[in-house]
């Protein structure tokens, strides 16, 4: 199937993928697959006004009815899973199974949000005054701007949008300029759900295409109370303060530098499998990719030898081919950055295994994943490089392992492999991992949608997806109702007139 046939199968017309100003390249072979039309900055005020109009109508639709739209979206995604997964593979370079997995994640969050639409619960609260009742009500907040990264080109949109829609908020989506086609294919699917739903307001979910300046038009708009932004810490450092400065609510999902502690008691066979998947899956381009391995000195040499052997047989190549486990990096710039970080690690005393160019489709950037034994947690190790580099460091005491673990600026995902209950529980305790996600005997990547997703420190502090992340898309109102014939004041204050 040609690249264009993949796009046509996903419902994109030739007119939509030609004649525009934004060139889209496939990381598979570097070929230009489309030229799409960008949203003009001058059009943004009208887009924002449409979202506000949609909000006025959507906020009064009963939440379970709003959930029906999300249920239909889940049905349409099920029907279009293969076609959308193929566009993810084409545009983000994910292997087939991971492209499909990303769509499955969208289906899962739709199921979750549909149920949630009947569970937007508030509390009832005991009042200190006789004849009074207190309660908490959750109301829709307003339009939500969703800015997404290239590496999860549709799943992150769905985490936000499924929740925002049941919470009563319209969405304006600005996907990565590297992956607008996946977003356009996704909107075709959403439009089918919308047509079946019937009476949703116009402009409920809008797509805007372009680079940072289009994102900034959302970031600076006071009419958009929520900005959910996923991407680099560099981007979050710009977006977060700007949203805060105009009293908006930022939900930031930024870079990670995720680690695994491997204790002497660990099941090493299981650890090796978990390490390989989480370090090289998606060619190391997940925010939750494993980047640091902190291994007890007594087992370090053995574990590194096992990993080097496992890495040697990993199939790198065309992500569409059966059996491929590692596809391309997103572009050449990403490959160049990987090489320069490996060079830097060498200069800091690191020993590099692998990491060179790999065979693949001509025109793409295919690399062998790297394992780098480091003498210390240097600045290079403390930096997130969005490529398959795994730094390995040894430790003697558990306290030392914890200090290394938490000694980075990022705080997304983390894990420990141990059979020692004290170590496992300490890792999960208040004195343990400082990350938003902390696991035992399972790798740091591949989260399920049922839990809240996000991290601390430079990862931005936002939470999306499951648990009570929905509260980030609503405004909380505290209500006091007086059903007595008196007007007592709280705290016993007297104010007789
Ligand atoms: P990026 O920061 O280059 O771009 C992300 C998005 O932000 C794009 O849509 C981009 O156009 C937009 N953007 C950039 N500058 C902006 C600005 N000044 N104002 C508004 N929008 C702006 O990131 P990327 O290379 O696409 O993605 C990789 C990064 O994303 C990695 O650091 C990875 O860890 C992170 N990521 C985090 C999560 C998470 O949930 N924590 C998930 C996926 C990716």
Descriptive labels:
Aldehyde Dehydrogenase, Chain A, domain 2; Aldehyde Dehydrogenase, Chain A, domain 1; 2 domains; 37% helix; seven-stranded mixed β-sheet; 497 residues; 14 helices
Describe what you observe in this structure.
- The chain is α/β, with parallel strands linked by helices.
- It has two domains: 3-254 and 460-478, Aldehyde Dehydrogenase, Chain A, domain 1, CATH 3.40.605.10; 258-440, Aldehyde Dehydrogenase, Chain A, domain 2.
- The chain is built from 14 helices and 21 strands.
- It has helices spanning 3-9, 44-58, 63-79, 81-92, 96-116, 155-167, 180-197, 212-219, 233-245, 268-280, 297-312, 332-347, 398-406, 421-428; strands at 22-25, 32-36, 124-125, 132-140, 144-147, 171-174, 205-207, 226-230, 249-253, 258-262, 290-296, 351-354, 370-373, 389-395, 410-411, 413-417, 437-440, 452-453, 456-457, 464-465, 474-482.
- Strands 12-13-14-11-10-16-17 form a seven-stranded mixed beta sheet, sandwiched between helices.
- A hairpin with a 6-residue loop joins strand 3 (124-125) and strand 4 (132-140).
- Bound molecules: nicotinamide-adenine-dinucleotide (NAD).
- Nicotinamide-adenine-dinucleotide (NAD) binds next to helix 8 and helix 9.
């Amino acid at each position: 199937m040609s690249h264009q046939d993949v796009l046509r199968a996903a419902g994109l017309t030739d007119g939509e993928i030609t004649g525009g100003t934004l060139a889209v390249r496939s990381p598979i072979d570097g070929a230009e697959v489309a030229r799409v039309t960008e949203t003009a900055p001058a059009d943004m005020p009208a887009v924002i006004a449409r979202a506000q109009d949609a909000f006025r109508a959507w906020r009064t639709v009963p939440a379970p009815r709003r959930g029906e739209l999300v249920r239909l979206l889940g049905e349409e995604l099920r029907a279009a899973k293969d076609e959308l997964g193929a566009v993810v593979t084409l545009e983000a370079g994910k292997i087939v199974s991971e492209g499909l997995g990303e769509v499955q994640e969208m289906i899962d969050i739709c199921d979750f949000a549909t149920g949630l639409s009947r569970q937007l619960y508030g509390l009832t609260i005991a009042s200190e005054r006789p004849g009074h009742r207190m309660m908490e009500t959750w109301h829709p907040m307003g339009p939500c701007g969703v800015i997404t990264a290239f590496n999860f080109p549709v799943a992150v949109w769905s985490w936000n949008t499924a929740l925002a829609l049941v919470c009563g908020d319209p969405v304006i989506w600005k996907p990565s300029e590297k992956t607008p086609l996946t977003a356009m294919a996704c909107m075709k699917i959403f439009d089918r759900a919308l047509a079946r739903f019937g009476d949703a307001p116009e402009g409920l979910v809008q797509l805007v295409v372009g680079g940072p300046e289009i994102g900034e038009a959302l970031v600076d708009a006071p009419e958009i109370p929520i900005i959910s932004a996923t991407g680099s810490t560099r981007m979050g450092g710009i977006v977060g303060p700007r949203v805060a400065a105009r009293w908006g609510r930022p939900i930031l999902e930024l870079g990670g530098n995720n680690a695994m502690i491997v204790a002497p008691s660990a099941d090493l066979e299981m650890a090796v499998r978990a390490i390989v998947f989480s370090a090289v899956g998606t060619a190391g381009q997940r925010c939750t990719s494993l980047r640091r391995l902190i291994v007890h000195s007594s087992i370090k040499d053995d574990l590194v030898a096992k990993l080097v052997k496992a890495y040697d047989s990993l199939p790198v190549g065309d992500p569409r081919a059966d059996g491929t486990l590692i596809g391309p990096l997103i572009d050449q710039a990403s490959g160049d950055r990987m090489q320069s970080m490996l060079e830097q690690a060498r200069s800091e005393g690191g020993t590099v295994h692998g990491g060179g160019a790999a065979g693949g489709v001509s025109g793409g950037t295919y690399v062998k994943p790297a394992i780098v034994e480091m003498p210390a947690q240097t600045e290079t190790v403390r930096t997130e490089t969005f490529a398959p580099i795994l730094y390995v460091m040894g430790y003697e005491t558990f306290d030392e392992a914890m200090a290394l673990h938490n000694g980075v600026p990022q705080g997304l995902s983390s894990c420990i492999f141990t059979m020692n209950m004290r170590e496992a529980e300490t890792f999960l305790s208040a004195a343990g991992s400082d990350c938003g996600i902390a696991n035992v005997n399972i790798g740091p990547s591949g989260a399920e949608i049922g839990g809240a997703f996000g991290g601390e420190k430079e990862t931005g502090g936002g939470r999306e997806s499951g648990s009570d992340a929905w509260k980030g898309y609503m405004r909380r109102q505290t209500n006091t109702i007086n059903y007595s014939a008196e007007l007592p004041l709280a705290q016993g204050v007297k104010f007789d007139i």
